[in-house]
Amino acid sequence: MKRIHYSWFILAITFCSIIVSGIVMSSSGVFINPFENEFGWDRSVIALAFAISMFLYGISGPFMAALLNVIGLKKMMIISMATLLSGITLTFFMNQSWQMIIIWGLIIGLGSSLFLTVLSPYVANHWFEKRRGLAVGILTASTATGQLILLPVLAAIIENYSWRFAIGLIMTLIFFMLIIIFLFMKNTPKDVGILPYGLEEETQESNESQKENPIVAAFNGLFSAVKVKEFWLLAGSFFICGLSTSGLIGTHFVSYCISFGVPLVTAASILSFMGIFNLVGTTLSGWLSDRFDNRWLLFWYYGLRGASLVLLPYALNEGSMTMLVIFTVFYGLDWIATVPPTISISRQIFGTKKSGIIYGWIFASHQAGAAAAAYGGGLIYKFFNTYTWAFFLAGVFCLLASLFVIIIKKQRSSQLTKEGIMNI
Length: 424
Known about the structure:
The chain has 424 residues and is mostly helical. It has a single domain (6-189, 212-417), classed as Growth Hormone, Chain: A (Up-down Bundle). 81% of the residues lie in helices and 0% in strands. The chain is built from 19 helices and no strands. It has helices at residues 6-26, 28-39, 43-59, 61-71, 73-90, 97-116, 119-127, 132-160, 163-184, 208-211, 214-225, 229-244, 249-259, 264-289, 294-318, 321-333, 339-384, 388-407, 410-419. The longest helix is centred in the last third of the chain and has 46 residues, at 339-384. The protein starts with 5 loop residues before the first helix and ends in a 5-residue tail after the last helix. Mean pLDDT is 83; it is low at 411-424.
């Protein structure tokens, strides 16, 4: 019987770690109303805490990528998971809005950063020579799996008991994952005496990045990337990606449904239903990114997402379950499907060695968009008493993003790689 390559065990541990951290971030949507009702805080203030968290874990991405080269994969995962555990535990003791901003905005934002930004491409690049696109697709889909499994459960616990019991469940999962990482995670394939999956001969790799100060490495990557037009096109499209996914849908979709009379558990179940299609769509996207032009994949992903977001207000206003199901399917299929092609294009342009840090900056743009939508959605609701304009504008922006990605020239990516931009 053929032995399973240890890279797949690393993939499984990473998958579960991302699920747990993804549960924390995706749970924000079901906690808005309970926090508002118990503490009497303004919805825009609660949204601000979640917005800060999204922005902080995004902007921390390139520094996390650089720290991985210095501290190592296992220690970074342990530190990040422990930080996440601390933030969730402190949630039990908060009673002021500024405390929530510190706990959910700063501590949880930092704890989530590694898992939700650069961990997927780092593990795929260092543990896989073949099937990298598939590996990234699987890891990216893990955030959707977290929604699929737990959002309705968390909503049911909140509705029948208390939000504190829901927080307790999340805390237990984080603690369990921390133990798994400590016992079974490894830094590199060399730690278990193997080569990356699909690599038959060991290659010489430079250790310069491991000696470089992580802050210097992160900013060096940024300064080099901003000179490349494709970086701005990817960062701009990913800003819109974050704005239209975790920032808007992840934070405000449940509350938007509730405003139309949809019960909390039902709204959370619809969001988790998206997770089913998200899991399929993102994994399939990773497979497709190994075989087709990534620019055209992104073009269709953003175009379909934009159309579905424009459809949503009409579906809720008409009370049409058929239209809502259509939205759920279309939106779910490409919620995070944009990530594998974006990572693939980044790797083509900047090379395997530097693409981790540079993708970290691209993802920082993603989270800046998410933060803008999380806070902006709360403001729009405050002034208009509805989220309709927020969702309609997000749909229009997605159509703009589809134009951004198609401008990227395929021959430019190949040319940049040949000319040595990968070594910047």
